[in-house]
Amino acid sequence: MNIKHFNIMVTEQECGHARASLKPADLTAYLLDRLPHKPELLRPAVVLCAGGGYGFVSPREDQPVAMEFLAAGCQVFSLHYSVAPETFPVALMELAKSVAFVKSHAREWNIDTDRIIVCGFSAGGHLAACLGMMWNREFLYGPLNAAPEDIQPTGMILCYPVITSGEFGHKRSFEQLLGDRAGDPRLRELVSLELQAGQQTPRTFLWHTWTDQSVPVENSLLLAQALKKAGVSLEIHIYPSGRHGLSLATDEVSDSTGDCLVPHCQGWMELAKEWIKEKDRE
């Protein structure tokens, strides 16, 4: 395995407004070596977006998750995207550039370009879903001088995602995402993703807990309804109990309180791995 770090920079011209700083995002690549007995083997790629309410990037949803996907034979890329005081669409453009970067190195890294998956947790799930629904929007691909298909993911794994800016929205995430534009109704509609789902949205794996008090389960239920209406393939799992931010729900990612250790929820990762493999059987 090789670990590489890459800078992903979004300019003020690309995002359309002055940036708080010109610090690049970090894209960490965990790359499996080519197998001598199967040099032609193409691997899925998973681009990870940890949560943190667009205020930070949670380490609990970062490397531990990357190692699980790596063990499943995926090439994994963890994006430490820009957070507040940076505002929309900086992080989205960073993710779009990351997907384009991964695709541009597909031959070198033995990546199957039909299996480029964005995986996000909480606000990172919102970010991943934004790209899944907006990759074909000119405001995104145009300033990046990219073709829409260059930034198009072919699957989404969304873990207790922030989706709606409406009644069940996570207020703090949208305040941090939009900054002083948080009161703009048109912008809030744009980032309320149950309103943006359509046939352009890739196949989706989605999970949440029924008792999530921070990002209510209605976020996932609203998205599921929108995907159903759009005819998008969806696998959804709603677990009966568990707090927000479970990550892998294992002891490794649980803090001193132990409230992120929920054995019943640990199965989501194996289900997600199987979901990735199902693409091979289509």
Automatic annotation (TrEMBL):
PANTHER family: AB HYDROLASE SUPERFAMILY PROTEIN C4A8.06C (PTHR48081), PEPTIDASE S9 PROLYL OLIGOPEPTIDASE CATALYTIC DOMAIN-CONTAINING PROTEIN (PTHR48081:SF6). GO terms for molecular function: hydrolase activity. It comes from the Bacteria. This is Acetyl esterase. The keyword Hydrolase applies. Gene3D superfamilies: alpha/beta hydrolase. The keyword Hydrolase applies. Pfam families: BD-FAE (PF20434). Keywords: Hydrolase. Residues 35-227 form the BD-FAE-like domain.
